[in-house]
Amino acid sequence: MSGEPVGIIAGGGAMPLRVAAACRAMGRPFVAVLLEGFADPADWAGERFMVFRLGAAGGALDWIRASGARQIVLVGHVRRPSILSLRPDAKGAAYIARIGMRAFGGDDSLLSAVRQVIREEGFEPVGPTRFLQEAQCPPGLLTRAAPDGTAMADIARGVAVVQSLGRADVGQGAVVQQGLVLAVEAIEGTDAMLARVRDLRREGPGGVLVKLVKPGQDREVDMPALGPRTVEGAISAGLAGIAFEADGALLVDRETMVARADAAGLFLLAIRPGEFSGATAGATT
């Protein structure tokens, strides 16, 4: 695949830019479709890109096709719009009709439908992990601070809660403090959930954010992402740490994440949910 162009459909956040940088390092040209209202055109100065609104998906795919790209990466944060706000063009309306009721299901249902449309249009949908393998993390502790027994029990509780959420295709995260579920992630996303937690925390040891891949989720295309903003949100919410799925979450700017967490005394722990036990802090070694 070396040298073949890549189409990047870019939402918000730093991850689309990291994929673009990885493409350059691999010697693969790329064209970027910036989703209006999410990706900032100023960040893509000097690159080959066009801005499309979500309802103009047909024109976006035609433009990618004209570049010669066969692979498409969907990456970056996008808040789901209402059908009325889409204002679809003719092709966009046809795509919505093909997706049907899956557009109103959970994220997994919608993404599965979008990937199907991309394949039917002759493209190969690929995930950012094809380009950002270094953004994944094996099991272990990344920081100087480590979870104590209370935090380990909260992580175990959070794993059970998030896996239940995931099976219902609702969210990928939850915050637990002293066994109490302070918040679960839904359509608002992790940052907004952490902002809510600031007013919900109890006295005593801080809680933990647990962020996992949903059971059955497509790890190739849709993986949870954490970055410096996640760490800042956890600090502001008074949390003790963040536990995330090893080899199942993408870390944006890991060095900055770890440095900021160390400065605040926050732990970052990569776990394997199936092997995790909250009975002992020894799992942090």
Low-confidence stretches: 101-109, 277-285
- In the CATH scheme, what's the topology name of the largest domain? Cytidine Deaminase, domain 2
Rg, Å, rounded: 20 Å
Largest sheet: 6 strands, mixed
Shape: elongated
Q: How many structural domains can be distinguished in the coordinates?
A: 2
Going by CATH, the homologous superfamily of the largest domain would be: LpxI C-terminal catalytic domain
CATH C-level class of the largest domain? Alpha Beta
Structural class: alpha/beta
Number of strands: 13
What letter string, H or E per element, gives the SSE order?
Answer: EHEEHEHHHEEHEEHEEHEEHE
Cα-to-Cα separation, first versus last residue: 39 Å
Strand content: 15-25%
List keywords for this structure.
single chain; 285 residues; alpha/beta; Rossmann fold; 2 domains; 9 helices; 13 strands; 34% helix; 19% strand
Structure description:
It comes from Muricoccus pecuniae. The protein has 2 domains: 125 residues, Rossmann fold (3-Layer(aba) Sandwich); 149 residues, Cytidine Deaminase, domain 2 (3-Layer(aba) Sandwich), CATH 3.40.140. It is elongated, with a radius of gyration of 20 Å. Strand 7 and strand 8 form a beta hairpin. It contains 9 helices and 13 strands. With 285 residues, the protein is of the alpha/beta class. It is 34% helix and 19% strand.
SSE topology:
Elements lengths: L5 E5 L4 H12 L3 E6 L13 E4 L4 H10 L4 E5 L7 H4 L3 H10 L7 H14 L3 E3 L13 E2 L7 H19 L5 E5 L2 E5 L5 H8 L10 E4 L13 E2 L1 H9 L4 E5 L4 E2 L2 H11 L2 E5 L14
Parallel strand pairs: 1-2, 1-4, 2-3, 4-5, 9-11, 10-12, 11-13
Antiparallel strand pairs: 6-13, 7-8, 7-9
Helix pairs in contact: 7-8, 8-9
